[in-house]
Design a protein that fits this description.
The chain has 199 residues and is of the alpha+beta class. The protein folds into two domains: 1-31; 74-188, Roll (SH3 type barrels), CATH 2.30.30. Helix content is 30%, strand content 19%. The protein has six helices and six strands. The protein has helices at residues 3-17, 23-32, 57-63, 79-92, 102-111, 183-186, and strands at residues 118-124, 133-139, 143-148, 153-157, 161-167, 170-175. A six-stranded antiparallel sheet has the order 4-3-2-1-5-6. A hairpin with an 8-residue loop joins strand 1 (118-124) and strand 2 (133-139). The protein is elongated, with a radius of gyration of 36 Å.
Length: 199
């Protein structure tokens, strides 16, 4: 295209795209050879993220998600879990050295994950619980599920029971009545070092 044809083409495009402007104004823009094209992007509508709904407590019970099958209820199966737990505690407490301060280890154990720990019921208001020893398989808010050396799965309530936990010669006591928390909640809780001790 020649220059005149090109000028006429641009003039026509501007007139069509900006009908509100008069011919003089368009001519002025062409004379200055400066043109600012305004662009108005479309507003993007934010899509609401759908919340992923988990199972309800009733559905979890129906699906038996937390139940351990009878053929899996064997002490020997969970011994490697106990070895992993011991290594986890050693790393958490920086080696459990003889010169380590007991109250520091105690405070770390209070917040530690106990799945895989070997515990013993040392005191209880119900005598039948005293002496139960085994590996903690599951911890809930109110109970521990423990597998014993006799391959029996015991459900031991925390309330009114005292548990002992031993690792590398260090013995810690868990007062179940002060321990009525889920494992995930316990990791964020601040425990008082001193307080009333009872069952």
């Amino acid at each position: 295209q020649g220059s005149e044809e090109a000028k006429a083409f641009v003039h026509a495009v501007l007139k069509r795209s900006m009908p509100q402007m008069k011919g003089e104004a368009i001519q002025d823009m062409l004379t200055r050879k400066a043109l600012v094209l305004e662009y108005y992007p479309k507003k993007k509508t934010k899509q609401k993220r759908k919340k992923v709904k988990g199972f309800t407590a009733k559905q979890r019970r129906q699906l038996r998600l937390f139940e351990i099958e009878p053929e899996q209820q064997r002490y020997a199966i969970f011994l490697p879990l106990h070895e992993l737990w011991k290594q986890y505690i050693r790393d958490l407490c920086h080696g459990l050295k003889p010169d380590a301060q007991p109250h520091m280890i105690q405070s770390k154990l209070l917040k530690a994950d106990l799945h895989g720990a070997i515990v013993t019921v040392t005191k209880s208001k119900c005598p039948s619980y005293v002496g139960i020893t085994g590996i903690i398989l599951q911890e809930f808010k109110h109970v521990f599920k423990i597998i014993t050396k006799e391959d029996k799965l015991k459900v031991v309530p925390k309330f009114n029971n005292v548990f002992s936990l031993e690792i590398d010669g260090f013995i810690s006591y868990i007062y179940g009545s002060k321990f009525l928390l889920r494992a995930s909640e316990r990791s964020a809780k601040k425990f008082k070092l001193k307080g009333t001790i009872d069952l």
